[in-house]
Amino acid sequence: MIRLGIETATDVCSVALQVGERTTVREAHAPRDHAVLLLPWIRDLMSAAGVGFSDLESVAVSRGPGGFTSLRIGMAVAQGIALAHDLPVHMVSTLQALAHAADPNFQARRILAVLDARMNEVYAGWFEAVDGRHVPLADEAVLAPERLVAPVDGNWRVAGPGLDVYSGQIEEALAGRIAARRPDIWPGAEAVLALAKNSAGVPAWEVAPVYVRDQVTS
To answer: Of 132, 139, 166, 202, which is the most buried if we count CB atoms within 10 A?
Structure first.
């Protein structure tokens, strides 16, 4: 399997290349630089692995929610590569990729993935580890952090940069039900690749972002 993964929905720009059992990654916290970094990093990874675009079997990309502009950059690159080389595209939830990055070995039973949505809101996704997958327990949502309500009882591992920005409000909303805190975890292309195996690829012309909110912002 030779597959390219792209994640640009947040301030972290991330690219991963899977060649057989080996995955190589380039990523950095680089707000506003996704358009500059993305294609050179992809070419660097492919050159180092000794493969070309014609060797790719599919492309996996984070489909949102996330920053409007940065999200579109990653999806446009994924779509362009897929169209040029007749490849399927695996569209992966950014929040699910965040949950996977926070719990790659499925040791935490429940994960709350939170991203800063600006405008004093968070993007939130509630997940439960079931049979080696992080299964959504509720629809992805954008809301004020103080309005977070767990869909089921129990403790949660809360992960993502939204926790860093809205720590007090999230702590108050979950009222002692936070088992672990990981504000340092971001969704990345390696997690996107890991989740791609659980999603059916779609034709490149069907690629579209999922913003969650109607009013989008960069």
So the answer is: 166
State the Cα angle at 199 between 134 and 158, rounded to 5°: 25
Q: What's the DSSP call for residue 34?
A: H
The pLDDT tens digits for 162-196 are 999 999 999 999 998 999 999 999 999 999 999 99
Q: What is the dihedral of CA 122, 137, 17, 31, to 10 degrees?
A: 0
Residue 187 in tokens: 């969704």
**Cα-atom radius of gyration of the chain, to the nearest Å?**
17
Q: Which CATH number fits domain 94-182: 3.40.718.10, 3.40.50.150, 3.30.365.10, 3.30.420.40?
A: 3.30.420.40
Prediction pTM value: 0.94
Fold of 2-93+187-206: Nucleotidyltransferase; domain 5 (3.30.420)
